[in-house]
Amino acid sequence: MFRFLHAFKGVKYYLFVSFILWTSILVPKFALAQTDSLKANNLKEIKITQKRSSLQNLSPTPLQILNGTALKKLNSLSVADAIRYFSGVQLKDYGGIGGLKTINVRSMGTNHTAVFYDGVQLGNAQNGQVDLGKFSLDNIEEISLYSGQKSELLMPAKAFASASSLYLKSIVPTFEANQNRNFRIALKTGSFGLIDPSVTYNQRLNHKLSVSLNAELINANGKYKYRYTNSVYDTTVVRHNADIFAKRIEGGLYGTTADSSIWQLKLYNYNSERGVPGAIVANRFEFPQRQWDDNFFVQSSYQNNFNKKLQFLVNAKYAYDFTRYLDPERVSLSGALDNRYAHQELYLSFASQYHLTKYWDLSLSTDYTFQKLDANLENFAYPERQTGLIAFATKLSWQRFSIQGNILTTLVADRVKNNSPAGDKAEYTPTLMASWQPFAKDNLRLRAFYKSIFRMPTFNDLYYTFIGNSKLNPEYTTQYDFGFTYSKSFERKRLTNISIQADAYYSAVRDKIIAIPTLTLFRWTMVNLGKVEVKGLETNIQSNWVIDQVQVIAKANYTYERALDVTPRSEVFGQQIPYIPINSGSITFGVDYKNFGFNYSYIYTGERYSQKANIPVNYVEPWYTHDLALRYSFTVAKINYSIATEMNNVFNQYYDVVLNYPMPGRNFRITLITKFN
């Protein structure tokens, strides 16, 4: 690979050459396809009828899905609440409605999980983390988690570029016959002073164009009781500075064309002010720190289906994220600490898939991302990053066997105004996946995948004043997975369907980025020191029952995981890394009878350690919660109403997900929803 003469020119040149090579191959076929499409007299809208359960069975990588029906039944307010029911997931939750919530899949670290919203990744070059507590379930239709990556070929190059992927799909407007508009108004209220109204308006402009608008307001004082214990006394205290006031509005424009192409345009804005609840140590219970967030993005997507052989997918996005952090307790000559960050991102993607033969498909995806970060910090680096991704993938599919592979090229170039930039990076990472049905009459499938990938150090890792280290290497991961899926349906039986997924996996992370102290304990720096090996087992079981007029769905997830620090010459060699339980799982049980619905859920997280050393002083006790929900729906004068009551943490267990950040005890929530034309 040639060395860049200039990073920006190098990335553009490489992307340009790859684009020309690909289009020179496909343009003749594109023209023929377009001609064929113009000859067609009747063009019908494409409808996807494949069930989600079959997608899970056919996927060569572990796939977990919560769709609209299942999401409604869970006691969940945000996306972070819902993903707790996935296996192999650790959710870092700092407590309360407004606390930071991030996902960690299979113990590889938060930065190794990409989060996509309507097919486009949510980027954060500053710290690499996506706060899932910001994303309400009010406008979410489906949440899906892939360990590894999707098996689809027509997708952006970014979808190939992470160890795991979380996809959030917003609700697309639908209309009944002779209906051109509909409304949905919802109100949630409950413990901690929660007031959460939302409204959705959908309008069909014509038979090929519709618009949707969704707005939500969240206000809560965040005051909840928790238990505080030290060597002197055991008491109950009220949590302070966990309040939040947030506004979210998003709009979408959805269209189809005469040649069955589909497109959409989405605008999104989230604005909040919240307290930053601190760690409860040394008898300190109140904190004055505040944080303001203003997140905006506009994105568009266009997928063109000219014929069965050739497809294109184009994505574009601009995002602006502003964060302000105020700490009145940290005062210097210039006043109280008042840090302000502004992150901007421009993203362009072009993907294409060509159906070469009945069994063979090819695809090429090319992405370009420009990111920059501004801040009011002294001696700030003002970094800019350009990233080029090129993914070439191929897939061979037969009725009972499929194999897929891809190679991803990653080109990264950083520039800074102050200090030294990180060197330009050029990496090549492969992935191989396979799925096999060994018996023709049995819906048992074996699956396996190998994936090598890495994550770039964030701007904070590289350039944060006095802490960043511009000489950091990327964090590399290698994944191996072998598992099976099995499903069976029964006719005229009370048990109508049962499905099982189980996977054994091994992952290794090298050049792990960690913070260590320098000459004093008051100044730290980032270095590549860590190595982690993860060995685990995931199981997911679901059964559906019909007993007269009663429908029952029962699910159970379990994860066994050993995530060990294997850094050479480490004092904690062979010990479990912080906050990773060996055993964890969940159970959900739902019953529907006529207009009534009942749901019970149970979540268990085993013992963990808060620091690297697995010693008694760092021991964190296991925790579990029981949640209940009851729903009732009815119709009056062609207006649909529903009411749901929830009781969370029924037995009022006091626990910490992150040590010294107490979680709420027993709490309640009521949801009222009305839908009308």
Question: Would you write up a description of this structure?
Answer:
By secondary structure, the chain is mainly beta. The chain has one domain (7-38, 51-676): TonB-dependent receptor, beta-barrel domain (Maltoporin, Chain A, Beta Barrel), CATH 2.40.170.20. The chain has 5 helices and 36 strands. It has a 22-stranded antiparallel beta barrel. Strand 21 (425-436) and strand 22 (444-455) form a beta hairpin. The N and C termini lie far apart (60 Å).
SSE order and pairing:
Layout: H1 7-39, H2 52-58, E1 63-67, H3 68-73, H4 79-82, E2 89-93, E3 101-105, E4 113-117, E5 120-121, E6 140-147, E7 164-170, E8 181-190, E9 194-206, E10 209-220, E11 225-229, E12 234-238, E13 244-256, E14 262-275, E15 290-305, E16 310-332, E17 335-355, E18 360-375, E19 384-397, E20 401-415, E21 425-436, E22 444-455, H5 459-463, E23 475-489, E24 495-517, E25 524-547, E26 550-565, E27 575-576, E28 583-593, E29 596-605, E30 608-609, E31 619-620, E32 623-636, E33 639-648, E34 656-658, E35 661-662, E36 667-676
Parallel strand pairs: 4-7
Antiparallel strand pairs: 1-6, 2-3, 4-5, 6-7, 8-9, 8-36, 9-10, 10-13, 11-12, 13-14, 14-15, 15-16, 16-17, 17-18, 18-19, 19-20, 20-21, 21-22, 22-23, 23-24, 24-25, 25-26, 26-27, 26-28, 28-29, 29-32, 30-31, 32-33, 33-36, 34-35
